[in-house]
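Review session, final week

We close the course with one last complete record, chosen because it touches almost every idea we covered. It is 4-hydroxy-tetrahydrodipicolinate synthase, a protein from hydrothermal vent metagenome with 304 residues. Go through it on your own first, then we will talk.
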Amino acid sequence: MTNKEKYCGVIVPMITPLDKNEVVDRQAVGKIVTGLLANGCTPFVAGTTGESASLSNGQKRDLVKYVVEATAGADLVYAGIADNCYQASLHKAAQYKDLGADVVVAHLPCYYPIDDAQMKAYYLALADASPLPVMIYNIPVTTHLSIPIRLVDELSHHENIVGFKDSERGEDRLVEGLSLWRDREDFTFHLGWAVMSSFGLQRGLDGIVPSSANLCPALYRALYDAAKQGNSAEADRLQAITDEISACYQQDKILSRSVPVFKAMMSAFGLCEPYVAPPMVTLTDGELESVKADVIERFSRYIK
């Protein structure tokens, strides 16, 4: 199996279910993972949607353990290892390998501004030392750093770097990446800019990484399949539906405000509790009831 065949599809950046004491909710993890697998989607834990920057190492370890347990070898498990400390990232990579994760995902350390040469040196060192395959992750909204496409292309030839997840917006950037990697069997291109999922997949994108797929995995799997089968009208129709769902918690909100609303939406369908880790703030009871009433009325028919 080539890397393009192995690391593809709908990769879902999982929320981290927490109880009121900020303990990872094992039962909710199992429920979410079961829903993802049943709809042909792959879990990615300890990413941005999963509040990774707000979780302790112990919480992340529990999360990876529970997801691997729930996946039970039925699919890959992607695990985030990003950290401002290089050695901490390597420690997590080794730990998550022991727990059963299959591939690690890392954005840049972001406390210090760094230039292109430093970005390249960092990923080469990480790829050389990581016991698991590495996915490069570009997310300027949180790191305030943008990895140039040409630099990713240089890194793409390292044998332990298997792909690139780009959450930076920009159609020119997306098209440039597609032109470089759509025909590469050893390297995969994933997009975290969910509103461009149909566009990208119809032009050779290997994977999509939509946070809303935590709630509606069936819609995103259907979108992926329609696009890959050349049914552009159906893919675009599903894109519009998923965009409407995403707008409920993303529109006019900064990231730290959107995640609590998204967890409230998921709690409306019994998938998790609405609790988030500081500095994010869990919605009030009144806000929760308002969100639940709205999403149940509007989206119940799409949530399977």
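Two points worth writing down before the exam:
The chain has 13 helices and eight strands.
The first strand starts at residue 9 and ends at 13.
Good luck, everyone.
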